[in-house]
Write a structure and sequence with these properties.
With about 300 residues, the chain is α+β, with helices and mostly antiparallel strands. The chain is built from 5 helices and 14 strands.
Length: about 300
């Protein structure tokens, strides 16, 4: 065997061992941090795309279908969320198909992958923006639990600016009861905050810009206020296994159900369990569908 073949085989073995370690860690802990993945050129393109999208919000003083806007203590208006960023700039759309990201996702949930949604979350410094303890899955329940969220920080995510805080292993609790409220955008809160009250179980997950954080849809997580003067912006890409069918929650996202790798199996995989549907699924009595009119008899009596 020549030296090049030996080096290639060693690289493959190292890659396989790294992938197996990531699968074990994700299965046990419910999250994964990869500090370096995308590189400076990709990061620069994403930051340029963010600036271009935000130029469209310069005169926006109220929330729209595209921007969630709040008024700050400086009396200015600040964007805290961009809905469907892959609709608004090609750089974000292209990232959905990025081989480096999809390789990580495939390693965790398999080779047939669909997009569920995308969003940009902005925490400008000095604003009272935070996220309560919650799981993501209960707001968008599916037939199984292969739903994960890839978070791409466009700025270094640190404890000071409100990086994600998680409770490792909490995904194994399954979907928990939540409150679903609307404050310009959907907001999910753990119904019983005592579940996440023990700070000894909290773990902050700083990630440098250009890295990624991946977490299971049932992982308990939150994030605190940005206490710095600078921004903290993250892009979220939600992926699911293609045989994981959504049964509740919003579906009107741009690119929802987009097959990003592999081929849709045409089957559904169902996990055992019970989860409350956000907003309920039954038709209220006052909205009951009227029965169809009885068809007129033809041909007289028989």
């Amino acid at each position: 065997m020549i030296a090049a073949d030996v080096g290639s085989a060693r690289t493959r073995r190292e890659g396989d061992a790294r992938a197996a370690g990531q699968r074990r860690f994700y299965a046990e802990q419910g999250y994964l941090v990869i500090p370096e993945l995308l590189g400076r050129r990709t990061l620069a393109r994403l930051r340029s795309a963010l600036a271009a999208v935000l130029r469209g919000a310069r005169r926006v003083t109220r929330s729209t279908d595209k921007f969630l806007v709040i008024k700050g203590p400086d009396e200015g208006y600040h964007v805290t969320r961009v809905r469907d960023p892959i609709k608004h700039h090609r750089a974000f759309y292209d990232l959905v198909f990025d081989r480096r990201i999809l390789d990580v996702v495939e390693n965790l949930i398999g080779p047939s992958i669909q997009l569920q949604q995308s969003r940009l979350i902005l925490k400008p410094g000095g604003l009272n923006v935070w996220f309560d303890w919650h799981q993501d899955y209960p707001a968008y329940p599916h037939t199984n639990f292969d739903l994960l969220i890839v978070t791409v920080p466009l700025d270094d995510a640190t404890p000071a600016n409100g990086c994600l805080t998680v409770i490792p292993g909490s995904h194994r609790l399954g979907p928990l009861p939540h409150r679903f409220i609307f404050e310009g955008a959907a907001r999910t809160q753990l119904a019983d905050p005592r579940v996440a009250a023990d700070r000894a179980h909290w773990l902050q997950t700083p990630v440098p810009a250009g890295g990624i954080e991946v977490h299971h849809g049932n992982l308990l997580h939150s994030s605190a206020v940005n206490r710095t003067d600078g921004p903290r912006t993250t892009l979220q890409l939600w992926y699911r296994a293609a045989d994981n069918v959504q049964v509740g929650g919003a579906r009107d996202f741009y690119g929802w159900g987009l097959q990003v790798r592999g081929v849709g199996p045409g089957t559904v995989r169902m996990a055992e369990g019970t989860c409350k549907l956000p907003g309920g699924a039954a038709i209220r009595p006052e909205e009951r569908v009227a029965p169809p009119r009885r068809a007129a008899a033809r041909g007289g009596r028989r």
